[in-house]
Amino acid sequence: MTDYTTRIAQELSIRPNQVDGTIRLLDDEATVPFIARYRKEATGGLDEVAITTIRDRLVQLRALDERREAIVKSLTERELLTDELQDQLESCETMAQLEDVYLPYRPKRRTRATIAREKGLEPLAELLFGQDNINVEKAAGDYIDPEKDVADVEQALAGARDIIAEWVNEDTDARGRLRAMFEREAMITSKLNRGQEEAGAKYRDYFEWHELANQAPSHRLLAMFRGEREGVLRLSIAPEKDRALDLLWGIFLIGANAATQQVRDAVADSYDRLLRPAMETEWRGILKERADQEAIRIFCENVRELLLAPPLGRKRILAIDPGFRTGCKVVCLNHHGSLEHHDTIFPHEKNERGERAAQTIRHLVERFTIEVIAIGNGTAGRETEQFVKELRLGDEVGIVMVNEAGASVYSASEVARDEFPDKDVTVRGAVSIGRRLMDPLAELVKIDPKAIGVGQYQHDVDQKALRSALDDTVLSCVNNVGVELNSASQQLLAYVSGLGPHLAKQIVNWREEHGSFGSRDDLLKVPRLGPKAFEQAAGFLRIAEAANPLDRSAVHPESYPVVQKMARDLQCDIEALVQNETLRQRIDVNRYVSERVGLPTLQDIMSELDRPGRDPRASFEPFAFSQAVTGIEDVQSGMTLPGIVTNVTAFGAFVDIGVHQDGLVHISELADQYVSDPNDIVRVQQRVTVHVLDVDLERRRIALSMRRQSREN
To answer: Which CATH code for domain 4-105?
Structure first.
C-alpha cells in the first residue's frame, strides 16, 4: 500500500512530519480552519491551502488503494492473481494505470474477439501475431469450419484480427504511450451540426474550430462541451491518426511479410474501434475535470471576495429595492438588522405619488434616525439614487448603491420565509439589500453562491466538486472573520468549524429559550453539543458582552490557562493585560512554551491580545458612480469612468459602471503587459477606473479597457 505521508510530502515539497500531523488531525475529524488556526505546532504552520491540498490528495490516494484492493479481491476469487500481476498492481500510481493492468482480466461482455475465440481462432491469431514468414492463406485454411461459422479464409483471418485487435487494446505499454500522445498532441475539433445554424448562433465561434486540447482555456472547453450537449456542435478529440498509427505500429510490427500485414490491419482496426474511442473518452474526462477545476477556482475566488467585502457595520439603515411600475419597496432596519418598518413608494411618477414618496423618505429618515440609505443596483437603481440625492438629506445620511444579485433568490427561499413569514418577497428582498451593506458575509451565507452572479459556467461544472469547493470557501471566510454567538443567524452559525446545520439550530433554540450566552462555556449546555464540537467551534465564536475578555477574542479556551498565568506573573487581571500594551511588552513568550503550547500558538495569542476580536476585513469606503451616465445610452466611446468589478472570468472581468449593464474588460485590456490570469490583476468588488472602447446599443454590450495606453490615447 502507498505510504501516504512520504508521497504527499514529496509531491508538495514539505516535511513528512507536517503531512503526518495534518493527516492525524483530519482523521480525527478536525476541520481545515481549526487545524490552520489552532494546531500550528502539529502541522508546522501550514495554511488552509496546503491543508486542503493534503486532504484532497489523501482522498485520491485512498480511493486508488480501495480500487486496488477491489481488483486484487476479484482476481483472487477467480484464481487469476499471480505474484507478477500483484507487483504490477502495486506499482500503479494512477487510476488509469491500474485499470490498464486490470483490463485483460476484467469480466467482459461478449465481444468480436470473444466470438472469434469461440470459433477456435485464437491459435491462428497467435501464429499471425508472431509475424513469421508463413503462408497466411494456407494457415488460415486450416481453421475453416462451416459448423463454427468460419466459411472461408477471409472469415478466419478476420476473426484472428479481432483477437489481435483486443490484445493491442489491452496492452499496458501501448495504452500508456498512446495516452501520453493524446495528452501532448490531441486536437479538439468542433463542427456545426447540420441545420443548427440559427438555434446555435451563440456558438458561432465554434462552428469550425480546432486547437491543441491541452492548451484550450477552461471557458472555451466548457462552451464547446455545452454546445455539444445541446446538439449544436459535434466534437472530436484526438491526435493525427497517422501519428497514432505510427506509434502503435512501432510497438507491434516486428516483421515485413504477409503475417505482418494482418497485424498491421488489426492494429489499425484496434485504434479506430477500441483504443481511440477509449482514449478520447478518457481524455474528454480529463479535459472536463481540468476545465471544471479552473472554473471552480475562479468562482470560489470571486465568492471569497464578495463574502469578505468590507462591512458597513452596525448602522440604522433605510434600504430601497428599486422599481418603476411596481414602485420601490422601502424598509427601515435598526443597528442589529431587525426590520422596524416597511412601505412602498413611487418616486418616479411625476404626480402626487412622486411628491408623497419624497415626504415618506424624509419622514422615515427622521423617525428612525437613519444613518445610511442603501439602494439596490438593479432596474431603476440609478434613477432612485438620483431621486434620493435630490432630497438633500444632509451629509450625516450616506447614500450607497448595493449589488443586489441574489436578493430575489433569498426573498423566495425557505430561510426568508422562516425569518419573515408574514412579509412578501419584496419586503424580504429590501431587507436583504440593507443587511448586505451592513455585513455582506452574514447575509450572503443565506444565499446559494451559484445565485450571486459571479460564476463562469457554474451550471456546467461537476456539481459535487463545486459544492465541496464552495463549502470550503464559505467555511474559510466565516471562520476567518469569526461569528458573534449572540446575534448570528442559524445559517451563519452552520458554517462555524465543528457545528453544521443541526448544532446551529440547537444553539439558536437555546438562545431563544435561555437568552444570551454569557460565556463560551455556556455552549456546553446546548443539547448534543459535546466536547469535540466545542473544541472545534469555540475559538471562532465571539461574545461581545462577555465578562471574560478572552471570550470576546480569537484566543481558544484551551489556551486560557496560559494567558491567566501571564496575568498572574504580571500581578494583574486579564482585562488589564488586554488593555495595557506596556504590560504585554514585558511578556517573554519563550517562558510559556510547553509540550501543549508551542511558540506559534503563543505568538498568535499575543497578536490577539493586541487587538482582541479584530475583524480582518478592510474598512468600508463609500463609492459613487459617474453622475454623467445613468443608462447605456449615456455611455460614449472615449469616456473614462469609475466602476466596480462584479465578476472575474478566465477571459476578463465585468465591471459595473452604473448603467444597469456591466461592461467587459477583455483579458487583453486588463493591463499594458500580458496577463494569463485575470485574478492576478483584479478582484470582485475592486474599485477600478475604466476607459470605454465601444458601445453596441443593439446587443447592449460595452467594451472597456483598463490599459493605461488606452486611456492616454
So the answer is: 1.10.10.650
